[in-house]
Amino acid sequence: MVHDTNHQSKLWHRRLAHLHYDALPKLKKLVCGIPDVQTQHYGVCPGCASGKKNRGPFPFIKKKTKGILHLIHSNVCSPMPVHSLGGHLYYITFINDFSRKTCIYCLKHKDEAFEMFKEVQGFG
User: Fold this and answer.
1) Stated pTM of the model
2) Residue ranges with strand state E in the chain
3) Which site from 7, 13, 62, 97 is most exposed, i.e. has the minimal number of CB atoms within 10 Å?
4) What is the mean pLDDT of the chain?
C-alpha cells in the first residue's frame, strides 16, 4: 500500500475546514488521532481561492425617478435619551431620491413631523 503524504495534507486541509497547511503539524500535538502531515503543498486550494474572492460591484441601475420631488424617503428617529440644547428629542430626515439631497430637521414632539413635511414643499 502506497502512502501519499501530499494527498494526506490536502485531505486533512479539507477535513479541517481549510485550515492553513502550516498549522496541520502543530495540530497533531493538540489532537489525538491525526497522522503526521507534511506542510509541503503545491498549488492553491480551489476552495481557499474562491473563499477569498471579493464580491464585484453592483450593476449600475438607471434611476427610476423622473425628477426632483418625484420620490422622497423620510424617517422619524425614535426619541433620543437626552434632550438637545434646543430641547429636541426627535429628528426627521428627508432624502430626495433623484438628487440625493438630504435635509434633517429637529423636532421637540413627534407630532410635529406632519407640519415639517408640509414645509418641505421647496425641497429639491
Assistant:
1) 0.47
2) 72-76, 90-96, 102-107
3) 62
4) 81
Strand order in the sheet with 102-107: 72-76, 90-96, 102-107
Tell me, yes or no, whether 61 lies in a domain: no
Return the SS3 of 76: strand
**In-domain check, residue 58:** no
Which residues form the domain of 102? Answer: 72-122
Which portions of the chain are predicted below pLDDT 70? 1-6, 121-124
CA-CA distance, 23 to 10, in Å (whole number)? 13
Q: What is the CA radius of gyration of the chain?
A: 30
Distance separating alpha carbons of residues 76 and 88, to the nearest angstrom: 13
Work out how many domains the chain is built from and give that number.
Answer: 2
- Closest C-alpha among 63, 66, 64, 71 to residue 101: 71
Chain Cα centroid distance, residue 124: 30
